[in-house]
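Homework help board

Subject: predicted structure for assignment chain

Our instructor gave us this sequence and asked us to write out the predicted structure in token form, then describe one feature. I got the tokens but I'm not sure how to describe them. Can anyone check?
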Amino acid sequence: MSTEATVARTVLIHGPISRSALAVRMRMSPASLTRLTKPFVDRGILVELDDVVDGVGRPSRPLDVSPAVGTFLGVKLTGGDAHCVLTDVRAQLLGEVALPLRSHAPSDVVDTIVDAMTRLVGDSDAPVGVGISVGGITDGSTVVWGPFLDWEDVPLGELVTAATGLPTRIENDLIALTEAERWFGVVRGLDGFAVITIGAGVGYEVVSGGEVVRNADSGISLAAHVPLEPHGPLCSEGHRGCAQAMLGSASIAAQATTALQRPVGYDEVLALAADGDPAAAAIVDASARALGRLVALAANLTTHADIVLAGEGMGLFAVAEGAVRAEITAGRDPRASPVRLHVDDSGFTAWARGAAAVAVQAAFERL
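My token output:
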């Protein structure tokens, strides 16, 4: 990313921000900063706000990103649905819609995305860009491996760009969600934190040195098989009591179905536990304690005390927060910093906002 684009990105993440604070953050002289920001102000990307007095001294005119930069489409693809949002330049929600996928055929998926965009945009201007997140491995434009869609080497970015005329960024869903937290979440500005997601799968990502950790193993969900309970159920890979077995929504539902001898869904298990059903309460308590162990492990192994919890399965935390926090405390040295939990309970909206965030990132890379 060019120095000019880095300046604009910094205003986006930390704005409104005074020129003096921006100069300090960028380690630039005021003259250099003025030279770099002027073209963005002239193009309407950055705007100067009204004068403010920050402490003692001359009034300053903060810089911010103009709302006129445009909107962004974020799409989270699962095995059955496209969860789509329209956001502003800071990934704040303007509208959302979830549409079922007719099939896993790439052409049908693209048609669903176009349909969602049409519904969300209406008569307004087209979005600046599209971000799409999927579980699995991506390279920015291609879904290299998408297990929930049974895809390998699908050039989804090219297909969506051809159908919409818009630049499209494809990203792993967990990385996209973490990027949204890093740029726009309550943990923005922190040098390091970890993200844990629960739902259909269990995800884990780390921000270190202010950057999301990316490598060849990103997208494989390795944390899903961390052992958490030696007497727990088996996952589909044969691991007993791993994170997927203890925290995956399908596994929790399957345990309740066996215990209650009737089909039970994930949300019903949580509702039954909240109402005091003994079997459901025991299953939920064991899962909540497993989540607490995973949080403690993440904090201990990364030395980051800030942990973001997200995903469509976060109802577990709402029902059994006390058990989660008790297990975090039990797994943490009493001299260590207290773990600070940041809970995003917006479910699939958070995943889709992550996709919109990577579309925003891509747009600022093009500046």
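Reply (TA_rk): Your tokens look well-formed. For the description, you could write something like this. The longest strand covers residues 93-100. That's the kind of observation they're looking for.
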